[in-house]
Structures are given as structure tokens and as C-alpha cells.
Design brief:
It is a single chain. This protein is 59% helix and 10% strand. It is of the alpha/beta class and 597 residues long. It folds into three domains: 324 residues, ABC transporter transmembrane region fold, CATH 1.20.1560; 147 residues, P-loop containing nucleotide triphosphate hydrolases (Rossmann fold), CATH 3.40.50.300; 78 residues, Rossmann fold (3-Layer(aba) Sandwich). The chain is elongated. The protein starts with a helix and ends in a 9-residue tail after the last helix. The N terminus is likely disordered. The chain binds adenosine-5'-triphosphate.
Length: 597
């Protein structure tokens, strides 16, 4: 029932948070300004009585008689002026309160909208990394860029509903006090209008979900056009991509039209029904002999009530129309079905003995039918040494990096760090011990200096030293803006080899206990690579280095080598013991190597 009444109620309540305590103030201001309006309208009764020459009209009852008695004893002219001044004062006061309420609701809306955006970004940073391996980036982009705004709009609508609802309650109370029979008639009419409205509004949920899902597809297409601009041109796929984009965009248009045309039918329908009710009240009041000033005051009250009722009904249909958006935002904010971030609180400071993979078995999450990527893999990475992890493409090398960084966790077996299970170690502290330079880690859209010092409070001099070690200083110096050069989106204004060297400098500037290079220099020229290898060799004994590469030259400085084949550890040996073997021979020949799993 609650779900039917307000889809995404949890999102709205969560977003309002501490602002919930301001909602009573919104209600009180709404009630007070409506009460002032109602009182002003009530004063029409004595005013009309004076104008109609029947200033002391008798026979009125209830609140009408109370209004009629105001200013009794004064002369007609003086009484008219006093009442007019009172009406004006009430109108001024009512509008001051209404303005105060607008400020208050705008403040709450701003805070709640910010809370939604902040909660979304918090969630994206908090949930476990496997989530990003499974989810469509288009869907996530759509939630952040579109649906979160609709959720904010829903909050504004709820706030304005509170204001309109308060006003409607007070105006209905005035109507009741004037004539309960006519009010009963009005109330029945309003219930009928509301039922008709609710029936139509309920049909908005389906179209709303369509709009949301087509928007996700369109966002995915937009991302594709931005990311794959080069690929599309090289393969001459502009026309095909244009058609695919247009069809996604047209699907959004059609779904939007279906939703908005249904929503658009609601205001005219409501207006017609309200007008019919309005006229029926006048005719029936006249036929049961209600006095002229009371009919006028009643009709004016009814007239003032109508926009509030219409606004309430429109809010209802708008929230139904946004239900797809609210459901998407709620889905992303719901942690219960998302991978958890890695846990653990054992402290860690550097690597002293080494890391051990102890019969680690792993398959990527998503489906049980996915093949095992690591089969009971066992090997060791000793502290202060450089270990090469090699194997044919798809053997599971990067997966080992993902496990070490705790992006994913083993399904079976353990990874031990100085004898402590990695799963028990504080993940934030652990990641501070590691720096990764990989072909997949992109640059951020900023200057070269910002990229090198990303996440690190390094001085420009330290950044320059790291750039020298990574063989990046030479080309950076030749750029017109040097270290202040903007690298563009994902480093688009640099060559692949330049990007890799900046990424390597970024890893080196941290001087990590464990440096992981995953195909980190495969686009770098031979001379630069040789110099980088010398840099890495100089870390030997002091720091631990893990190198993944298909190139013999890149792993030449390593002490140990671990060979992977189809997710199994074929063997582990000192590189010096297998120095005569080529990479292909290393991949294939497991004889003579120790370790394994
Ligand atoms: N995010 C993922 N989801 C599902 N399967 C994945 C994912 N990443 C990798 N795999 C699969 O895991 C296996 C090992 O991949 P991994 O990237 O570890 O190989 P690799 O040895 O690093 O290969 P390469 O030398 O080509 O980089 C592959 O079969 C791959 O298809």
C-alpha cells in the first residue's frame, strides 16, 4: 500500500534526512497562511451585506454569523473601510507567510537534492568493485545525470503537496463551518474527481519505467560515441552509429510522448470536473435558499480551494510519472544487493616477509557458468624481491593483481600477507602500501603534475624526480606548458607511451612498499624501457615489485618468475635458473621449476 501511495518513499525520506524536522514548520506556515486567506474571504460576508444594503443581515449561523457580526455598531461607511483594511492586512500577512514558506521549502529542497547526489556519489565510491564489472555504465550515468534530478523534483513536489494539502484542509474547514451540507456535497464531488484522477495516474508507472530504461540505453550510446570516436571512424561506422543513436533517441522521444500525453490529459480533465462541481454547488446552494453573501463567500472559498486540489492531484500524477526514476535511484542506493567493499581491520605497515597465494580459486562474479579463472593457485612473492608473473593472454595475470588490490576476493583458498590473511587486513591501509601502473588505469582530466601527484601530497620537485625515474621528464620538459600541460580526457592529447610513463611516475612518486606493473611499459620505446628497467632494478632489496609482461626485456631485472597457464600455476623459479629460456619456452615448459598449484 505504501509502495502504491508513494513509490520511492524511502529515497525521499532518506534524502530529507535531518530536514524532516522542518516539515512541521512547513505545515504550520501552510495552515496559517490558508487560515488568514479563509478569514479574509469570510469578511466578504459583511462587506457584501453592507454593499447590498443589508448590513445587519440576520438568519446566518455558524462562522457566517460570526463574520457578519464584525464591526456591528459602526456606521456603514466606517464599517466598510475597517473591514476592507482588515481584509488587506490579512492578505498582506498571508502573503508574507506564504513567502516564508517558499523560502523554507526551497531551502529543504536544495538540501535534499544535494543529499541525493551526495548519497549516490558516496555509494559509487563505497560499493565493491565487482559491481562496476557487471553494470552497464550507461545505466549508472543515466541515474547520476538524469534520474537523480527527477528524484529531486519529486521532493519539491512532495513539499509543495504539503503546502497545498495544509491550505486545502483549512479552506475545507472554513467551508464546513459555513455550510456542512454544501461541504458534504463538495467533498463527495472531490472524492469522485480524485478517484478518476488516481485511476489515470496509476497508468503512468509503466510508461515511466519505459522512459527510464530507454534513457539508460541512450546514455550508453552517448558514452559509446565519446569513447569510441576513433574506432567508429577507422571502421567507417559513422552511418551505422548515427542510426543506432537516432533510434535510441527516438525510443526516448516515443516513451516520453506516451508518458507526457497521459500526464497532459490530467489537467484538462481535472479542470472540467472541478468546474462541473463548482457550478453544481452554486445551483444547489441557490435551490436550498442559502443567503446571497454566504453563497458568494462559499464560492470564493471554493474557487481558492480549487488550485490547491488541482496541485495536489497533479503532484500525485507527477510522482507516479517519476516512479521509474525513483526506483532507479533507490536501486542504486540500496546496498543490500550490491557487492560489499572489502572488510578487515588488522593494521599493516609495509611488507616484511612476503605474500603467499595459498590454493586460491576464483571465478569472476556474475554467473555460475563462468569458467574458473584461477584453479587452486599457489605461489609466493617475497618481500624486497622483484617477481615476474607471466603467462599467455587470458592466463589470469591481471586477475592476480585484482585479487591483491582486493577488487575481488578469492572463492576458495587464502592470500597471506606476512602470514596474515589479506581478508582480515584493513583495505585502506593495505592499498596505501601498493601502487599500480597498468595499461588500463586511465589518466585524470587535469595537468601532468596533477596526474603524477594524484592522491599524494607530493611537491613539484618530488613529481619531477618520479618523472625522471619513469623516463617522462624529457618529453614533459619539451611541452610548451611543461608539467602544467593539460592531458585532456583520459590523456587523449598524449601518445600511449607518454601516458604510460606518466602513469608510471604516478606510481613511483608514492615510493610504495609494493609496486605492481601490469603491462605498464608495453607502449614505451626500447631505450626508454631499458632506462625504466634500470630504475626498477635500483629498488631491489628495498621494495617489492611485481611485473606482468609478455616482454623478456621488461622482466629481465626480476629475481623470481611465476608462470601461469590457463589459471593454473605451472611453476615458480628464480629467473636466473631459467635465464636461457625464451618467453614462449617459459610459457610452455614447466619442468625444472619449483612451486606450482
Ligand atoms: N571483469 C571480468 N569479468 C569476467 N571475466 C573476466 C573479467 N576480467 C577477466 N576475465 C576473464 O578472466 C580470465 C583471465 O583474465 P586476465 O585479465 O586475468 O588475463 P591476463 O593473463 O591478464 O591476460 P592478458 O595477458 O591478455 O592481459 C580471462 O579468461 C578473462 O576472460
Amino acid at each position: 500500500m505504501r509502495r502504491f501511495l508513494l513509490p520511492g518513499l524511502e529515497v525521499l525520506r532518506g534524502a530529507l534526512g535531518r530536514q524532516m524536522r522542518l516539515l512541521p514548520a512547513v505545515v504550520i506556515l501552510g495552515l496559517a497562511s490558508a487560515a488568514l486567506e479563509g478569514a479574509g474571504i469570510g469578511l466578504i460576508i459583511p462587506m457584501l451585506g453592507i454593499i447590498a444594503g443589508d448590513g445587519q443581515a440576520n438568519g446566518l449561523s455558524g462562522i457566517s454569523a460570526y463574520f457578519q457580526a464584525i464591526g456591528e455598531g459602526l456606521g456603514d461607511g466606517e464599517r466598510l473601510l475597517v473591514i476592507a483594511a482588515a481584509v488587506l492586512a490579512l492578505i498582506v500577512l498571508k502573503n508574507i507567510l506564504a513567502f516564508a514558506n517558499t523560502l523554507l521549502t526551497t531551502f529543504i529542497y536544495g538540501k535534499a537534492s544535494h543529499a541525493i547526489r551526495s548519497a549516490l556519489s558516496d555509494q559509487l565510491l563505497r560499493i565493491g568493485y565487482p559491481f562496476f564489472m557487471q553494470q552497464s555504465p550507461g545505466r549508472l550515468l543515466n541515474i547520476i545525470s538524469n534520474e537523480s534530478w527527477r528524484a529531486s523534483d519529486a521532493i519539491q513536489t512532495v513539499l509543495s503537496s504539503i503546502v497545498h494539502g495544509s491550505a486545502a484542509v483549512i479552506l475545507l474547514a472554513f467551508l464546513l463551518l459555513m455550510s456542512w451540507q454544501m461541504t458534504l456535497f463538495v467533498a463527495l464531488g472531490l472524492v469522485f474527481v480524485q478517484l478518476a484522477h488516481a485511476a489515470l495516474s496509476a497508468t503512468l508507472k509503466g510508461p515511466s519505467r519505459h522512459v527510464t530504461s530507454f534513457n539508460s540505453e541512450l546514455a550508453a550510446r552517448m558514452l559509446h560515441l565519446v569513447h569510441a570516436g576513433r574506432l567508429i571512424r577507422v571502421f567507417g561506422q559513422e552511418t551505422r552509429e548515427k542510426n543506432a543513436f537516432d533510434s535510441a533517441s527516438d525510443a526516448v522521444r516515443r516513451a516520453g510522448f506516451a508518458l507526457q500525453s497521459r500526464q497532459g490529459a490530467l489537467p484538462p480533465l481535472t479542470e472540467v470536473l472541478h468546474s462541473a462541481l463548482f457550478l453544481a454547488v452554486v445551483v444547489s446552494a441557490w435551490s436550498i435558499g442559502v443567503s446571497f453573501p454566504v453563497i458568494v463567500a462559499f464560492v470564493v472559498l471554493l474557487y481558492r480551494l480549487q488550485p490547491h486540489m488541482r496541485a495536489l492531484q497533479m503532484s500525485w500524477s507527477q510522482i507516479q510519472g517519476w516512479s521509474g526514476s525513483l526506483e532507479e535511484v533507490r536501486w542504486l542506493l540500496d546496498s543490500s544487493d550490491k557487492p560489499k567493499a572489502p572488510q578487515g581491520n588488522a593494521p599493516v605497515d609495509g611488507l616484511h616477509q612476503g605474500m603467499t597465494f595459498d590454493r586460491v580459486t576464483f571465478r569472476y562474479p556474475g554467473s555460475e557458468v563462468r569458467p574458473l579463472v584461477l584453479h587452486s593457485a599457489s605461489f609466493e612473492i617475497r618481500s624486497g624481491r622483484s617477481t615476474a608473473i607471466i603467462g599467455r593472454s587470458g592466463a589470469g595475470k591481471t586477475t592476480i593483481v585484482n585479487l591483491l588490490c582486493r577488487f575481488v576476493e578469492p572463492d576458495e583458498g587464502r592470500i597471506l600477507v606476512d602470514g596474515v590473511p589479506l581478508g582480515q587486513i584493513n583495505p585502506v591501509q593495505w592499498r596505501r602500501q601498493i601502487a599500480v601502473a597498468s595499461q588500463d588505469l586511465e589518466l585524470v582530466d587535469g595537468t601532468i603534475l596533477e596526474n603524477i601527484t594524484y592522491g599524494q601530497s607530493a611537491t613539484p620537485a618530488e613529481a619531477e624526480r618520479a618523472a625522471k625515474l619513469a623516463e617522462a621528464h624529457g618529453f614533459i620538459e619539451q611541452l610548451p606548458q611543461g608539467y602544467e600541460t593539460l592531458v585532456g580526457y583520459r590523456g587523449a592529447s598524449l601518445s600511449a607511451g607518454q601516458r604510460q610513463r606518466i602513469a608510471l611516475a604516478r606510481a613511483l612518486v608514492r615510493d610504495p612498499a609494493i609496486l605492481i606493473l601490469d603491462e605498464a611499459t608495453n607502449a614505451v620505446d626500447g631505450l626508454s624501457e631499458a632506462a625504466i628497467v634500470e630504475t626498477l632494478r635500483s629498488r631491489a632489496g628495498r621494495r617489492t615489485t611485481i611485473v606482468i609482461s609478455h616482454h623478456r626485456s621488461t622482466i629481465s631485472f626480476c629475481d623470481d618468475v611465476v608462470v601461469l597457464g590457463s589459471g593454473r600455476v605451472k611453476g615458480q623459479a628464480a629467473l636466473a635458473d631459467v635465464a636461457s629460456l625464451s618467453m614462449d619456452q617459459l610459457y610452455e615448459h614447466e619442468t625444472g621449476m619449483g612451486g606450482g598449484g
